[in-house]
Structures are given as C-alpha cells and as structure tokens.
Amino acid sequence: MAGSPRRTLVTTALALLAAVAPMTPSVAAAPRAPAAADAPADLDLSTSRAQWVDRDTVAWDVRGDSATQELVYAHDGQLTVKNGALVGEGRRIRLAPAEGGLTDAQRKKYPHLKGYAAFTVDPRDRDRVRHALTGQLVATRSSADGTLLTATGVQTQGVLDDLYSATATKAALGPQFRGGRPTLALWAPTAQSVSLELDGKRVAMRRDDTSGVWSVAGARSWTGKQYRYVVKVWAPSVQKVVTNKVTDPYSTALTADSRRSIAVDLDDPKLAPKGWEQLRKPKATPLRDAQIQELHIRDFSVEDSTARHPGKYLAFTDTKSDGMKHLSKLAKAGTSYVHLLPAFDIGTIPERAADQATPDCDLRAPAPDSDQQQACVTRTAAKDAYNWGYDPLHYTVPEGSYASDPSGTRRTVEFRQMVQGLGDSGLRTVMDVVYNHTVASGQADKSVLDKIVPGYYQRLLADGTVATSTCCANTAPENAMMGKLVVDSLVTWAKEYKVDGFRFDLMGHHPKANILAVRKALDALTLKKDGVDGKNIVLYGEGWNFGEIADDARFVQATQKNMAGTGIATFSDRGRDAVRGGGPFDEDPGVQGFASGLFTDPNASKANGTPAEQKARLLHYQDLLKVALTGNLAAYTFTDSTGKRVKGSEVDYNGAPAGYAAAPGDALSYSDAHDNESLYDALAFKLPSDTTAAERSRMQVLAMATSTLAQGPSLSQAGSDLLRSKSLDRNSYDSGDWFNALHWDCRDGNGFGRGLPPAADNKDKWPYGKPLLTSATLTPGCAEIDGTSAAYQDLVKLRATEPAFSLATSGQVQSRLSYPLSGTSAETPGVITMELGNLVVVFNATPDAQKQRVADLANTAYALHPVQAKGADPVVKSASYERSSGTFSVPARSVAVFERG
Fold first, then answer.
1. Which of 505, 672, 721, 873 is catalytic?
2. Which residues lie closer than 8 Å to 267 by C-beta, 6 or more apart?
3. Is 542 a catalytic residue?
4. For residue range 719-775, what is the model confidence (pLDDT) as tens digits?
5. Is 548 a catalytic residue?
6. For labeling, which of 140, 172, 416, 785 is most exposed (least CB within 10 Å)?
C-alpha cells in the first residue's frame, strides 16, 4: 500500500466530574483527587476502553468492586479533566453491574469481550441513549467517597447497530433516482446536523429517527450536479465537535481527484455505450474450471506501442493491439477470466495527467544492475500515475486516472466499454475489491467513512485506536452498516457494470457471514429483473488468518478453513510454496523447491541444507503438490512419500493442514500473482546461476503446470507465460511503469535487468540480485519468451478440454485421481506421476529425462495427448510410452500428459 495517513490520537490527561445531577447539565465542584494510597487513576479520554454493545449494556475491562460506574455525555464535547476532576457540562447515564456479566448471546456476538465486566443502563435513563450518542461520551468509575478512579471514551458500534441497523440496513443510500428525480440519503445517526452542499449552496436534510438516515428529495435539475454532505459530529480522533464537508460514501460519480460527488443515475441511457443493453457475455465458466489472468489496467498497455489508449480502460477496446491479440489467444486456448487489480476510486493517484509526475532521468542509460533507476523512480512514485490500487477512497466509482477524462461520467462509460472489449475477446471480467481497509481514517483529508460516523466503520482495538493490521485503517464489516456497504457496492458493480466475479483482498478480515451475504445478494440477481445472472458470478479471495481477528477472535472469519464448502474459493499458498520453494519472506531468496531445482539441481545457497535434508524436503514438497493437485481436498487419502496412508488434512504445511477444501473449487491454485516476486524472478533467485535461458523457460512452464492442471480454479499473473520479470522487485505496488509494465512484443524483452528494484522493500536482497541482473543466461530472447507462452497455451487447452480436470466432488477426485508411485521405492525425487481417469500426467522437474514405470498399467495403450503431440513444445514431443512395461518416458524439465488409447 502507498503511504496512507494513519490515525493519530492526541493523548490528554482527563478526569470526570462527580455528583452531576441526574437530569440537569451542570458544572460540578471537583471531587477530591485520588489519595496516594489509592490505585493510580486511569484518566485518559483520548482512549475508548469502554464498549457500549447494545442499548442496555456497556462492556468494560474492569474488575468488580465497590466503585460507581456512569456514562457522562456532553453535546458540545467540552468535557475535560483538570487535576483529577471533570470540568465542563455533562449529563449522566447511571450504570449498574450486570450479575453474571455479559449474557451468552452477547459473548457469542462479541467473543473478544467475553472477559469484560458488564453494566446495565438504568431504566430511568434509557430515554437519553439516542441523544447521548450525538456528543462526547465518557465512561467513569468513582469510589464511594467520590474519588475518580477511571475515565475513558466509549466505543459505540454495538449500540448503534442495536438501535438503528434493523431499519437502516433496508434503506436505499446514496443517489437514488425515480422518474428522473434524485433523492440523496446518508446514514449518520451520531450527527448533530447534516445538510447537502449542492453547487455551493446548502440544502437542509431530514433525519429519520428510526434508521438514523438523513435524506433530501431533489428536482430533475439536480441531475449531474456536484454535491457534498456537511456533517456536524463529535470526532473522537481530535476530541471535539467538527463540521466535515465530505463526499458520499455511496457515490456513483465523482469530479477529478474525488473532491465532489456527482448526482448521477447509472441507468441513464447516455452512460451506456453502444450495444450495452444487448451485451452478450462469453459462456459462464464455473468457478472450479476458471482459468484466470490477473492483470493491472495500466500495466496492460502503457508500454504497448500498438495500443491507441495506453494505460486506459479503452485499451481493452483496441482489438488490433499486441496486448488484446495476446488475451484473445489465451481466451481461445481456454482462459476464461481476466482479473483486474483494483479499479475503483483509488486514493493515491493524481487523476489528471497534468498533475502526474514522471521520472526525470533516462532510465535506459544505467547498467542492468545499477541502483540509479530505482532511485529515479522512487523520487516521483508518490505523485506518478502508478499504484496497484489497494487504497480505496470510494468503493463504487471507477478510478478516474484510467479514463480519458477523470471528471464526470466518462469513467463510467469507458469502464463499461472495457468490460465489452474483454467480453468480445472471449473473456469475462473479475474485479479485485478491497473492502477490508480505507486509505485513511479520522480527520485525514482522504477519510470519508470516519468523518461521517466516527469510530463506526473502522475496526477499533481495545483502546479505541484504529486497527491497522491490513497495512492501513481497517474497516469493520462485522458492523451492520459496513457489511451493508460491502453488499450494496458489489451488487452495483454486478448490475450496473456487468462484472462477472469478485476477488476479495484479505477476505479473512471479513466475517464469513458478510461474504455469504454477498453471495446471497448476487444470487438474487436475474437476467429478467437485473440484466445479469447473479448465480454465474464467481467469488474468491485471500483467506489469510492474522491480525486482531485471527483465529475467529471477533467473529467467524472468511478464512481458508472456514470457507470450505461454501462455493467461494480461497487462494492456496500450499502449492505455491512447494513449487517455488521456501516462502515469500525468506531471508535468503535462494531457498529452492520442486520447480526450482531442490536436491535435483542444487544452487549454492547454504539455506537449502545438506543433500539429505534437501531430499527429505523435496519429497515433502511433492506431498504438498499432490494435495494441491486434488484441489487441496482435506478428505482425500493417498500414500505419502514416507509410505504412510494419510488424508490431505494430515499433511503438514507450516503447522497447518495442507488440505482444507471440501470440494474442488474451494481452493484456488497459483504459482505467482502481483504480490511477491514474479515466478520468473523467483526462479532467477533459486535456479543455479548457470541455468540457460531455454532451461528457465521449461521450468517456468513446469511451475505453471502444477496449478493449471490442478483440480479447481487456477490463477496466473498476466505475462508469466511470457517470462514476465519486474527486475526482481518483490513489492512493486508503487514502483511505476518502469518495473511493472507488460511487454507483449518479445523484442522488448521481459522486463529483467531494468536495474536493482526499489530499496524500500528490496535492499536487503540486493546482494543476491545484483550478480543476476547482468547475467546473459537470465536474459531470454524471443525463442524462450514465445515458446513459453505457446507451451502454456497448450496446457490451458488441455485443462479446458479434458473433463478429467473438472471433477465436481471430493468423491469423484478420490475415485479417479491417484499417485501410483507415491511412497514406493519407485518414487523419484523431483518427479510426480498422477493418474487421472484416462490420463497420466508426469511432472518431471529434474534436469534429466526420467522413466516412470507404473506396473499396473502394463499392456494398456497410452500415447502423448494430441494437444501436446501436435503442440508448440518440440521437446515434450519426444515423450514416449512403453506399453509392455507401463513405462512413461519424459524429457527433462517437462510436464507430459498421456491419454489412454
């Protein structure tokens, strides 16, 4: 992520006023300060350690004693503490200890609060709850003699949901049009006032007390007008009441750089490109069969000299460009989806070309191993036109920098044209979506949600600070209205932009229930009613388990193990690490794996261990890959490399089960993606330095084959079939076009040797990378680049046309897929032999030709599959089969598929 503003909390010593009259605001005389013998007072109103979980209950991590607990609220937010006493006017809400603490239902809803004490709102004060939530809130504990023991702010997410969500979740928010007349609606239950700023004029808005929604109906003339909301609200991050002018979180159109929302009806025919209503998509591919190309919009065309719209949405309408020709070839081979890196409104890219910085040096002049290129790129990175885009500003508006005009609705029209262009090429569109965090929070310039309902949309830690485990300000989709925003936004993309699938960034930071709600909402879309068949929309995401919500600490997460059986896939790192070797964060990037020469073609890295250790690890990697090839099925049983009969769930992956899926399609296989080094760069670090360019090409194909030929969906980073390199950059999110651009013409190279990668994320690897960047063996030519792509396309065609690679159930995989040589004396380190229905697939990752004798298949006719026998790879054509003995002969560094005759 680009450097997003982080919330800064101002710490102030505060204390509470005692003996405030129950019904009357007042300034009370200061109670005595705590005596020296007392426990130290915790008097810090800049924290929010108490949590108001529903209208009747406050949870607080304090121990039961004789103290008196109260909530004090002040509409003007002027409560402060001086000398251990509250100064300012406030009203109180009395609290009584709840016998037995939180109820079972409350503990289930808030498992991270299960050890907290519970306090019940006094029935006499319950009529004050809604008003109290519109100002400063302080939770206090005082001793019997009035000594203030504790004072802290209050988190209010739970009580807001309890009071308002039943009605608010059904509300239509943002701009809604009927008969050409717009209504604008904003959920802001804690706001003291909300008005609409339309064309510079203030328009009053009406508050619905049941839902907390403020709305205003407008005239037809409002269509196309710029607007913002003016929200007066207590902001804990700055400890005062503020008046924020803020864009609409449900915006459907924006001015350049997101300074104003625009009242736009997405159903307006003027926004529909020609043929939009009659758009016919390629036939839907079930998720378990999906072959996906992951692609960044700017990377795709910015250096393609044949593109008429470089770096823009419209580049996908340039049917004669090299990039579109290549995508069309992949589609004809069997690729079904293009997965676009984030294309919603991005917070870190200047949208006007005139405001975008460019490197001010000749990047082609320095040596391939120089540090000058990265230094030059880094100087302008914060203000250039490049970012991966994992820094959302507005979730439901296309990014403006990819449009020919970032101000207004051109981005809407051109995004739709992009979807059309991909569809015309035989490809369906997946969007990468990032609802787990925002680019900013609090009162920062690019904060939106937190300026409207402070402390609600962001996930807060125990002290009230915003969690940042995702790298930026985490959101809280476990809260009803953030969950609603996720669902509403995705339904809009599906209906209004005809997006065919969604990939969730850090999906494990969402509740499983939220992702299932998305699935339910999409399933309800029909061709007749909505123009799309929502049941054909595919969903997958990163099911990683970490951070403040790890191990279901706050809710049942949408993680790998929890999403099994839902039909929503999670990325599987098991096969990725086994095929590449080691992990993404190894100190020494030379740790080898199955497709990078471990044991069979060792490099000079001492991190790989002794030959015996390498062999043992390689055989374990082969077991991980055997599980991965089944679709990471938990229940699949096979003989592992030690000769033991095991389930997929019993194979160890760094202390976790290798197999976690319930059915093919639960796990998505990949050998590289935008994160971490590209596959070519990983192999550059890991293969022996004298490995030739032709051999590197073959290992690239072999590595890609382990995911392409696995059960379930497979994803490949765009350009990996062309040996794509980012000059060893492991985190190119802000590394500009120089390190990221795709090169469709082999004469332009593959991106390797463009200098040392940016220091911020790569400097510790420079000593390993510098000698590689000048190596002739690491500079592929057209023969290697084009040959790799052609061989990969053959594999995709095999995958798409052979039903055996598309098994629907765990039982079918168990009965039709086996590893006949696994765990026997005939198992060869560096070779996996898989029998799959009427096919036998041999993955030979070794530098030597290998024979694999399967005695049970003797006298059964097999031949190299026609796709490969007539295909582009001349080496694999030499693969052969001896019927009398059941022996398959496969050339070095090759994957060969044999078909029973």
1. 505
2. 177, 496
3. yes
4. 999 999 999 999 999 999 999 999 999 999 999 999 999 999 999 999 999 999 999
5. no
6. 172
